């Protein structure tokens, strides 16, 4: 199976533009709210967002909004809020997963301790709400309220998805099939990474004449976001197991140290001979610090040999192929512009990317 | 100085009614959203709210709303959201303070671990937003949006106040005066405990004719909430140092073990002879588990002898006296009903209560 090629120049340009706009918007926003004596909080909130990420989520909001005929300005608060939400989630996730590094530097809780990191995440979520309330002036109360409703949904899906995954870890659950995984990832990843950015962009950019069909359009977008979101997450997990460490920027096999249930790991545990399965589960349930690197290397090798890595690649490829088909059929309400072209190229990018 | 007496029957009845309504509303709300397989999350979110608290915050929302001529139904979503916010904050605070017990039982993070507790707090905050979005149907979009704006403010003040306090702890800061304390408590406690419940109730219950003066009324309410909130917090800290353990339901002197900067402790550190001050700071900066109970008892006794406890009592009394005067002058926009009477009695209750 071949990885589809994508228009690198288009993708890189759009992501860079979105990152730049989002950083400017965050700086303006925080500076306006930075009260005397509160520098410490605002410095902490700004930490992760200014360790440069991909900027995928804000780029999706901008593209969906402009694809509907809207302006960059109409998308700005929402794109910035989505990027902040992502960063707040990372701050809390890093505590929950006891991760040491994030985007090439110490995680926030390693730097400032758990209490400050919890509060920084909480504060980051508060500022998502602040930004979305500012939408009233830019988009009117009706659209602003529609966006808030979707933001509530993405937040709810995210905490539910996270609850499912934490429950698996807490109860040492490994008897899971692909359906379990897909439901968890739909909630935990697809909603805030793909579905909501696309939906929120469509709402922000839709003209008054679109109103009648808006809810239908949002359902189409939800399906597309699901397919693309799973492709994105499985590719993320594949990179964690197989990427070039320098290019990828994270520790390879970190997910095995963490015991993370991925499509590949679950495939291995379902198909491996009993002895291998027992050995793997023993390793996976050990505390991170006690895991022997040799055992982790053995598990990764065994997963390769069992075809688990190939299984993940095929599944990601299948979801993206379906997403591309769906895009052609389901996004007809969006005119053919370079913004829609970006959305299409993103579908290929999510599984062809190397980091 | 004498403690003012308050109408116990009125207070107890109103708190109980508010608690009952809030519990029913939460049950209905969670049951409607409880999705197959998500029981684990909803059970965790419901844990603290159903360990019976005082119900002070929802009671304030109901009273302010009904005092403006509104109905219980108009206050319900908002009262429930405020109570949920309080419980979400407790879940995260308990991790940050490494507290073992809450309302007579293990803290959530002791029971389920830090990761699940962080996510449970996050989820609780999401449901505040869900409830407040439901206000659109009950109160119309204008009032619902006004309430969301105040909710954003209370959330922002809370995380800022928390950031100030965590920064003091992280940097072992004890060179603080009453002004520092009052600013922190205004943000961390007054807003979500007094100011916002009163303001949100006023917005929810105000008739269309009130609109012109609404923002003026909300400023009056903010001042009242500040005075009452400081009275409440200082009394809370006094109870922690001096209450009857059985009646109070929490560990006495827990705040000294925690090293919490209270009005009383800061007074002691400002006024004590150098040797006592050095001994106290040495104790306060030790990890909780290493603190010698004898040393904690010594510090408490020294604070009594230095007049620090009396200083706290006088300050709380002074704030409540000012709140009572302010109530008579500043709340004239609210008719004299049993709801306004409750608000007045609450001012006395906050410093006369024994738990």
Automatic annotation (TrEMBL), chains A, B:
- Specify whether Magnesium is a keyword of the entry: yes
Q: Which domain of life is it from?
A: Bacteria
Tell me the keywords, alphabetical order: Magnesium, Metal-binding, Transferase
UniProt cofactor(s): Mg(2+)
Q: Which residues form the signal peptide?
A: none
What InterPro entries is this protein classified in?
Isoprenoid_synthase_dom_sf, Polyprenyl_synt, Polyprenyl_synt_CS
Q: Pfam families given for it?
A: polyprenyl_synt (PF00348)
Gene Ontology BP term (one): isoprenoid biosynthetic process
The entry lists its GO molecular-function terms as: metal ion binding; prenyltransferase activity
Family affiliation: Belongs to the FPP/GGPP synthase family.
Query: What is the official name of this protein in its record?
Result: Geranylgeranyl diphosphate synthetase
């Amino acid at each position: 199976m071949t990885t589809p090629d994508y228009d690198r120049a288009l993708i890189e340009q759009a992501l860079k533009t979105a990152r730049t706009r989002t950083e400017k918007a965050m700086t303006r926003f925080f500076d306006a709210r930075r009260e005397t004596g509160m520098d410490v909080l605002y410095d902490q909130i700004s930490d992760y967002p200014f360790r440069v990420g991909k900027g995928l989520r804000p780029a999706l909001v901008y593209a969906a909004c402009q694809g509907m005929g809207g302006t960059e300005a109409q998308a700005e608060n929402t794109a910035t809020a989505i990027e902040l939400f992502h960063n707040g989630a990372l701050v809390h996730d890093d505590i929950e997963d006891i991760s040491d590094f994030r985007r090439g530097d110490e995680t926030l809780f390693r730097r400032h301790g758990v209490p400050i990191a919890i509060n920084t995440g909480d504060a980051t979520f508060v500022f998502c709400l602040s930004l979305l309330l500012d939408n009233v002036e830019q988009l009117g109360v009706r659209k602003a309220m529609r966006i808030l409703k979707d933001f509530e949904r993405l937040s709810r899906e995210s905490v539910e998805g996270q609850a499912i995954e934490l429950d698996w870890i807490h109860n040492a659950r490994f008897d899971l099939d692909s359906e379990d995984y897909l439901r968890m990832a739909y909630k935990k990843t697809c909603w805030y990474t793909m579905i909501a950015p696309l939906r929120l962009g469509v709402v922000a950019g839709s003209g008054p004449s679109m109103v009648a069909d808006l809810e239908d359009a949002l359902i189409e977008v939800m399906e597309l976001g699901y397919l693309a979101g799973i492709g994105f997450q499985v590719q993320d997990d594949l990179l964690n197991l197989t990427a070039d460490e320098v290019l990828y920027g994270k520790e390879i096999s970190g997910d095995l140290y963490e015991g993370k249930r991925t499509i590949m790991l679950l495939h291995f545990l379902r198909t491996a001979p009993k002895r291998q399965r027992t050995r793997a589960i023993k390793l996976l349930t050990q505390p991170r610090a006690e895991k022997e690197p040799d055992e982790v290397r053995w598990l990764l090798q065994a997963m390769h040999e069992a075809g688990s890595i190939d299984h993940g690649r095929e599944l990601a490829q299948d979801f993206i192929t379906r997403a591309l088909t769906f895009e052609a059929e389901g996004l007809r309400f969006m005119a053919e512009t370079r913004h829609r072209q970006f959305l299409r190229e993103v579908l290929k990018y999510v599984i062809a990317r190397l980091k």
